Recover the amino acids of this structure.
């Protein structure tokens, strides 16, 4: 039913980046095959072809090659394509134009318009979102995952020097680094991120004990899912479930993740997510 066979996908990523993890969770859940190009975070040679300098980048070939930037744009565009089959992917992507905006800190950044909105006609909308509220809810929590949940990761995984070292050990192990580069990255990166994470903690006005904010956020999510459904999407995850899972998953194997499992009630939902995502 889906035009799966006609979509050739290549994901440029850092494996441990939450935005990239979100995209993988989405592609895996939808059973879309893709190639991965792990990007070296120091030289970033692999994405030299692109003027957009962040990951994830998805190259999609549905007839002609196309570059999709930004995790939420990638997810919304591909989901729209899977549901609608009406428009070319190129046309769909054109509905998510980049716009320059200025952050609160006065920094100029590129943002993508409509990035949580699926470009569906009335009939398709009815099929995906039987009532309006579920569409609004999904958008709200996808945005929350990007604007809030993601910011809790670094302060938590680099909380202490020991945790910062463990986090970098994991990043280097999973990522693409040369031997010397990796050794350098591990120690220099751990020290740097320990201090950077303190700055991030201030910027996002986190509490002194950053775990408190993580637990609160996670419990807020669990409460929003509620007890009457398996996922926010009902019997199957929606794009908000996939986003939250994708973000939290990057902490797997780290102290922050174990603490979260013990001190919040996320486990049953998290386990269900693991079960429905094949890879
Ligand atoms: N809004 C983007 C954020 C992507 C992002 O910040 N990626 C980081 C890696 S986790 C990156 O590539 N940073 C490099 C840079 O900012 O130069 C998305 O959702 O994909």
């Amino acid at each position: 039913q889906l035009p799966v066979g006609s979509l050739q996908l290549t994901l440029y990523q850092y494996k441990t980046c939450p935005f990239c993890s979100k995209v993988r969770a989405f592609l895996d859940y939808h059973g879309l095959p893709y190639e991965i190009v792990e990007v070296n975070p120091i030289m970033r040679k692999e994405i030299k072809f692109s003027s957009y300098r962040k990951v994830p980048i998805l190259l999609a070939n549905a007839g002609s090659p196309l570059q999709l930037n930004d995790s939420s744009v990638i997810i919304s565009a591909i989901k729209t394509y899977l549901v609608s089959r009406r428009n070319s992917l190129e046309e769909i992507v054109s509905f998510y134009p980049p716009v320059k905006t200025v952050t609160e800190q006065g920094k100029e950044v590129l943002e993508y318009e409509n990035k949580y909105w699926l470009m569906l006609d009335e009939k398709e909308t009815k099929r995906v979102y039987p009532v309006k509220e579920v569409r609004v809810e999904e958008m709200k929590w996808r945005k929350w995952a990007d604007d809030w949940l993601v910011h809790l990761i670094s302060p938590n995984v680099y909380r202490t020097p020991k945790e910062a070292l463990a986090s970098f050990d994991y990043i280097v192990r999973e990522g693409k680094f040369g031997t010397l580069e990796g050794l350098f990255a591990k120690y220099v990166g751990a020290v740097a991120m320990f201090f950077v994470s303190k700055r991030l903690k201030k910027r996002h006005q986190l509490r002194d004990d950053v775990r408190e904010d993580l637990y609160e956020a996670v419990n807020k999510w669990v409460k929003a899912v509620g007890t009457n459904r398996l996922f926010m999407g009902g019997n199957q995850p929606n794009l908000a479930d996939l986003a939250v899972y994708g973000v939290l998953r990057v902490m797997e194997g780290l102290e922050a993740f174990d603490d979260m499992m013990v001190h919040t009630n996320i486990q049953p939902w998290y386990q269900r997510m693991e079960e429905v995502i094949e890879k």
